[in-house]
Amino acid sequence: DSGVTQTPKHLITATGQRVTLRCSPRSGDLSVYWYQQSLDQGLQFLIQYYNGEERAKGNILERFSAQQFPDLHSELNLSSLELGDSALYFCASSARPGTVGIANTGELFFGEGSRLTVL
Amino acid sequence: QQQVKQSPQSLIVQKGGISIINCAYENTAFDYFPWYQQFPGKGPALLIAIRPDVSEKKEGRFTISFNKSAKQFSLHIMDSQPGDSATYFCAASIGNFGNEKLTFGTGTRLTIIP
User: Fold this and answer.
1) Which helix (H) or strand (E) holds A104?
2) DSSP secondary structure string, A47-81?
3) Interface of A with B (CB under 8 A)
4) By CB atoms within 10 Å of each CB, which of B20, B43, B47, B102 scores lowest?
């Protein structure tokens, strides 16, 4: 168990709809990352938040948005869904820099993912 | 633009054999190279990682070999076991604190047969 919690585990929806995926990072982790995993594309970085602020952006579509709340949980919003958005969406968190007793190994801790199916 | 290229896409190895997965990168600013292991229905989990100041790192049956001049690194699994059957991802990042954004390879599905 990585300590990262994602909900829902599975989601089936129709084209044109909007969904929200939720992530709770490991206790104390300030950074949250979102990745999309599809069969032919591997793991694609979408976006990173650090302590509530957007830190880095990857190949995230304009139809997608994310935010990190004061309690550090994060949500990924996917709108105007298309068939091609069907994928596994992973959230990951990493250790807070400067945390006493924890070296910055660069390790990301992944949740078990949310499987989105768009019909 | 894919910055980390991984091969092969799939690999079948007999139990007890050596599994080898290769990766090549383009961005010379990368300074952290982890390998992640993913079992079906689970998220990726860190297996082993290396920084470019060493050419090899070994943890049990798993070894990373790193060639900075060639911009290549590889994962070797010695005495491969059926429990090693999983998808393996190489990755690379610029390891700034709080900014461990990883660029992943496309993955290798490893199957160990008895």
Assistant:
1) none
2) EEEETTEEEEE-S--TTEEEEE-TTS-EEEEE-S-
3) 2, 4, 30-31, 33, 35, 41-45, 48, 50, 55-56, 58, 90, 92, 94, 96-98, 104-108, 110-113
4) B20
